[in-house]
Write a structure and sequence with these properties.
Arc Repressor Mutant, subunit A; 5-stranded parallel β-sheet; 5 strands; DNA-binding transcription factor activity; SIS_dom_sf; carbohydrate derivative binding; MurR/RpiR family transcriptional regulator
């Protein structure tokens, strides 16, 4: 069953997530994290995992339009989803880090519908102009995606430009264009404001984000969740970088003259030569 179909667990949660209480959202997050095996648990066990009362969990079940927990459990079993991030202790070694990255990749695969990736790739190929937006830690993945796409097709840029807001880049966008937004914690207000603006303006938008922005999933044209759990102090970007590579390859395959454009870019790159090396302004001591 596709994740964007109304009867899927992900779609049901996305459609009502904004109206849930904080406690109900915690319970919903546990359901999504255990989408593949939640059908094997009792309601009290899932409530304990979410650190909420059984009554709160029951309210969530009703909000998801199930008559009771047994009906939801049968639904989850029918979905047969898999892929759950594993819990890893802090003070990580290399093995723990790699294990968590692998878990993130499996979780992304379980949450992500390949039809969504295909739809985004097709829209990238067909779009007149594309703005790839990312701030703070999201800028790295946004920059890589923009770099890849700019080699395949023209009129693709990273937004906002230095010293600007994103408004200068997308003010005259319409349904022929595409906004790709990437936001990973810590999130700023810009992500919600951009999604709301695109939704109200009927401009296609693909949102790459972690689970903290599921509340925006229903308003984005395409929602691509990239788990970023990490056993240390910072976040992992293995999942989103992998998805960037997958999406870039798919766009290249769908673009008739993509390979020829890459050759032209490489030719110009070689003609221009490598950028000059930066030199230090320091002078030897005593001079």
């Amino acid at each position: 069953m596709r994740a964007d179909e109304p009867d899927s667990l992900e779609a049901r949660i996305a459609n009502c997530y904004a109206s849930l209480s904080p406690q109900e959202r915690r319970a919903a997050d546990v359901l999504l994290a255990h989408a593949g095996d939640a059908g094997t648990y009792r309601a009290s066990e899932l409530a304990t995992m979410a650190d909420v009362s059984k009554a709160t969990f029951s309210r969530l079940v009703r909000a998801l339009e199930f008559s009771n927990f047994d009906a939801m459990r049968e639904h989850l079993r029918a979905l047969r989803r898999s892929g759950v991030p594993v819990a890893i202790e802090r003070a990580p070694d290399v093995s723990a880090i790699i294990s968590q990255d692998i878990a993130n990749l499996h979780a992304m695969h379980a949450l992500l519908d390949e039809a969504v990736v295909e739809a985004v790739a097709e829209k990238i190929t067909a779009s007149r102009r594309i703005a790839v937006c990312g701030y703070r830690s999201s800028l790295a993945a946004a920059s890589v995606l923009r770099l890849n796409l700019a080699q395949i097709r023209p009129d693709t840029w990273l937004a906002p430009g230095s010293g600007q807001s994103v408004a200068e880049d997308i003010a005259d966008f319409d349904e022929r264009d595409l906004i790709i937004a990437m936001s990973f914690r810590r999130h700023g207000r810009w992500a919600k404001e951009l999604v709301d603006w695109a939704y109200g303006s009927r401009i296609p938008l693909a949102l790459f984000a972690d689970d903290q922005l599921r509340v925006l999933a229903a308003r984005a044209t395409w929602w691509l969740e990239c788990p970023n759990v990490y056993p240390g102090a910072f976040d992992s970007h293995a999942a989103v970088m992998s998805l960037v590579a997958v999406l870039s390859d798919r766009v290249l395959a769908l673009t008739p003259d993509g390979a020829q454009r890459i050759d032209r870019v490489n030719s110009v790159h070689e003609s221009l030569g490598a950028p000059p090396r930066a030199t230090s302004r320091r002078t030897p001591a005593g001079t």
